[in-house]
Amino acid sequence: MGNLHYLLIMPIRLLIGLLLSTAMVKAQDSLTLHFSIGSNKLSSMEKKKLFQAMNKDVKDIIGIIGYTDSLGNTTKNKILSMERADGVRTLLDSINPDWLRNTTTEGLGEQPTLGNADRKVVVYFSETLSAKIKKLKVGDQLTLMGLNFEPGTEEYLPGMQRIIDDLFNVMRDIPSLRISIEGHICCDAYDETDLSTRRAKTLYLDMIRRGIDSKRLAFKGLGSTQPKWPLPEKNEQERSDNRRVELRILAL
Questions:
Q1: Where does residue 146 fall: left (phi above 0), alpha (psi -120 to 50 degrees), or beta otherwise?
Q2: For residues 1 and 58, what is the distance between their CA atoms, to the nearest angstrom?
Q3: Closest CA to 118 of 168, 149, 81
């Protein structure tokens, strides 16, 4: 009965883990921390790794997911995986509690695939816009994640101010930076109302109003000519990915 129970619950657990990881890893970075067998405490070496990785370039902690190997009792391993995740969360809270405002913390128990490597916590985090841009080179593109508009208009949805502030701060702090703001739409093969250009221009004008020299900025709309997913999209996630604003680096 024990083996049958194990075989029945493992596909479910693996599916949950896959869904969580897929959602969190999208456009995120991650840090994996390893534990000794049966322990819910990080070694001094792993703590040092955590403190070195979590620096001023971190913007938010998206998720903290704990795992164990398949040794021992399944129920106890589920508890242990949560204790590991909670312990890492406590350490992160001691560094910067603001990182944890919208963090998912979960213990997924046994992951019987890699042996010792399954005794771990994975921390998913997003970097600041400044850190992301500094890794780019001229000609590279970066999607301005989370910038969304009212359907069919160039009006921002509520809650977009933080993203706009982030871009302004980067433009202010990196005076050599020049960018092209490029709008994209989903769903329609033709951008009959030039919506993609109007949205790009909205952000362009915002930067100018805040004091960024127009010589450092350009904008254009690309309609649906460069979709991440082929049209017609199959679901809302694909539509969301195609409906975006990107920054192209002109000088850095």
A1: left
A2: 46
A3: 81
Which tokens is 123 given? 């921390």
pTM of the model: 0.72
User: Whose CA is closest to 204, among 185, 218, 225?
Assistant: 218
The per-residue pLDDT for 248 is 97
Tokens of 185: 């739409």
Please identify which residue in the block is written with the tokens 């000794």.
36
CATH code assigned to 130-251: 3.30.1330.60
Mean pLDDT across the chain: 88
As a whole number, mean pLDDT of residues 176-193 equals: 93
Tokens 């951008």 map to which residue? 191
DSSP, residue by residue, 40-100: -S--HHHHHHHHHHSSTTEEEEEEEEEEE-S-S-HHHHHHHHHHHHHHHHHHHHHH-GGGG
Q: Which CATH architecture has domain 2-127?
A: 2-Layer Sandwich (3.30)
Side-chain-side CA neighbours of residue 190 (13 Å): 2
Q: What is the pLDDT of residue 133?
A: 95
DSSP-H helix ranges across the chain: 2-25, 44-53, 74-95, 129-134, 161-173, 195-209, 236-242
